[in-house]
Amino acid sequence: MENIFQIVFSGIVAISTVVYAILTWRLVRETRMMRQFQITPDIQVYFDRGETRSKYLYINIINKGIGTAKNVQFKIIKNLTTYQTDYFNISEKGVIKNGLQFFYTNQNFRYLLLKINSDNYSQVNSEELQIQVNYIDITSQKHERMFKLYPKEFMGMGVINPPDSYLGRVAHYTEKIDKSLKNIKNSIDTITESNELDSGK
How many angstroms from the chain centroid is the CA of residue 157? Predict the structure, then answer.
């Protein structure tokens, strides 16, 4: 009987040891994954439109990861062809052209690219921008990402006047009040000048 208890007890100890080893291994793996997540940059490149001027197309470059990216380089694989002037060409924009030594968490770069109008609408609608991003993390591990961006995804977006948000309406009516006050001031100045001229006679 005693031998049976010893065998059962040894079995329980062995099973507990195996379970403990598995749980420890999983904990170590999750800790390693969490640490990797905390040092890994996550660079995103995307289009958006102007909040109050929906005809303007912008590009955003942001590091959404927790880690800092180093030696960031951008390469234009396929460019747009509908820039109004060379000034707006993305290949000439600051970080795109010169790269970044350090790209910190939540750091954002936003550049104006296009004004979409009736003259270039069809061409912009058929275009594609491809950007390759290369960088390393703090452990010197290399990363490469490719982004394919399509202006057509933003076609049809517009704004209403006054805006449909409370903050937008506050700005809209504040601007109207400002214009009204300027008109009143100009009218008062005109009347004052007219009275001064009459008094001079």
Answer: 18
> Do the Cβ atoms of 101 and 71 come closer than 8 Å?
yes
Distance separating alpha carbons of residues 127 and 122, to the nearest angstrom: 9
Q: Are residues 57 and 100 in the same domain?
A: yes
DSSP three-state, residue 164: coil
pTM of the model: 0.65
Range of the domain at 133: 43-154
Question: What type of residue sits at position 172?
Answer: H
On whether both 59 and 134 belong to a single domain, the answer is yes
Rounded Cα distance, 89 and 84, in Å: 9
Q: Are 132 and 146 in contact (CB under 8 A)?
A: yes
Mean pLDDT per segment of 10 residues, for the chain of length 201 residues? 66 72 71 64 90 82 92 94 86 91 93 84 86 92 92 69 64 75 77 62 51
Number of domains in the chain: 3
Q: Are residue 14 and residue 51 in the same domain, yes or no?
A: no
- What is the CATH classification number for the domain harbouring 150? 2.60.40
